[in-house]
Amino acid sequence: MKIPALDVEKLKENALTSIRLGIEDFQRSQLTMAQGGDPARTLSAIRNLFAGVLLLFKYKIAISVDNPEDAATLIFNPPEVLPKSDGNGGIKWHPMGNFKRTTIDVSTIKKRFESFDIDVDWKTIDTLQECRNHLEHLHPAHTLGQVADFIAELFPILHDFVEKQLNEKPAELLGKSWEIMLEHHNFFISTRAACNTAWAEADIPELMQDYLDKCQCKECGSSLLRPHLEDIDNEASVQEQDKFFRYDCVACGHSDLIAPLMIKELNKEHYYDPRDGGEPDVETCLTCRRDTFVVSEQHCLWCEAELDYTKCSICEEPLRQDDQFNNGMCGYHSHVYEKLMHDD
C-alpha cells in the first residue's frame, strides 16, 4: 500500500506562511481606502488564517510520532476499507487502493488530537471555520468587525498551542505576525473593558445582561459596542427607553438601537424550528409588551414579571401567560369547568 511522502518541515513552513499572509491581509482590511486599505482582503485574511492554523495542527500530529511513514499515515487520507468474504462464512476487512494525496479535514484532526491527548480550544477554531463559511456569502465590509474580534480571540489559542504543544516561543516562531496579534489583542481587551464599564451606567435589565455581551454590530459584526454618549449624557435608560437607546460601534462607527440586538440574541439561544413541531419558547410579555418572556422559565427577562399560576391545579400541566385568566387551570380544564357550571 503506497503512502505519499510527507515533508514535515515544509508543513510547518507552509503553516507559518499562511498565518503571516492572513495577518497581512487583516491589516490591509482594517485600513480605510484612503490609507491604502482594502475591505475585500477580509476574506483572504480569514482563509489564510484558517488554513495556517490547520496546517500547524497537522504539523503537531506529524511530530507526535518518530517514524516518518507513520506521520504520513496520520496526515494523508487513508484508502477505503471494504469487507471481503473469508471463504468460511465470515468476512475480513481490507483497505482498497493507496493512501490519497489529500490531507485530513477538521473533523479528522479533532479525532487525531483526541487519540494523542492534544488539547486545544475547538470552540474558537469552530468559530473561525464558521466565519470563513459566512464570509463566502457576504460582502466583506459587513464582517470586518467580526474578523477583528476573532483575531483577538485567536491570540491566546495560538499562544497556548505553540508553547504547550510545540514547545516553542510564539514570538520567535511567528515573528512580526505575533507582534501584530499581541497589539490587536491588547487593544481589544482594553476596549471591551471600557465598553463594559460604560454599559454599567445604561441601566441594562439584569436578566438581559448576558445577551448584551453577545451583541454584534449590525453593520460590521464587531462585539465592541458602547452606549451612545448622547443617551448616557441624557441619563436615558435601556430598561425604560429601549425604543430609542442606541449603541455606537467602536470598530466602524455605526449607531443603532441596542434592544433589538439583545432580543435577537435571546431568540438565538431559544431557537426552534416550527417544522420540528412544538411552539416558540420566547413570546411577548403581557406585562411590559416586550418579546422577552421565556415560556420554559415562566418569567420575563426584561421586566422580570412572573406567572401567578405556574401549574394547573387539576392536572399539573405547566401554564402559560394565556392561562392566567383561567383561575389556576389549563385551557382544557377551564373549559370543562365552565361547561359544568353552565350545565348546572
Features:
12 helices; 344 residues; three-stranded antiparallel sheet; mainly alpha
Q: Brief overview, please?
A:
With 344 residues, this protein is mainly alpha-helical. The protein has 12 helices and 8 strands.
Tally the structural domains: 3
Low-confidence region ranges: none
Write down the secondary-structure element order: HHHEEHHHHHHEHEEHEEEH
**How would a textbook summarize the main sheet?**
3 strands, antiparallel
Number of helices: 12
Radius of gyration: 28 Å
Strand order of the largest sheet: 3-4-5
Overall average pLDDT: 90
Overall geometry:
flat
Helical content stands at 40-55%
Structural class: mainly alpha
Task: Describe this protein's structure.
This protein has twelve helices and eight strands. It has 344 residues and is mostly helical. It has helices spanning 8-30, 41-62, 68-75, 106-115, 122-135, 144-165, 170-174, 176-199, 209-212, 229-233, 259-269, 331-343; strands at 80-85, 91-96, 225-227, 246-249, 255-257, 282-283, 293-294, 299-300. The strands form three sheets. It has a three-stranded antiparallel sheet. The model has no long low-confidence stretch (mean pLDDT 90).
Explain the layout of strands and helices.
Blueprint (H helix, E strand, L loop, with lengths): L7 H23 L10 H22 L5 H8 L4 E6 L5 E6 L9 H10 L6 H14 L8 H22 L4 H5 L1 H24 L9 H4 L12 E3 L1 H5 L12 E4 L5 E3 L1 H11 L12 E2 L9 E2 L4 E2 L30 H13 L1
Antiparallel strand pairs: 1-2, 3-4, 4-5, 6-7, 7-8
Helix pairs in contact: 1-2, 1-8, 2-4, 2-5, 2-6, 5-6, 6-8
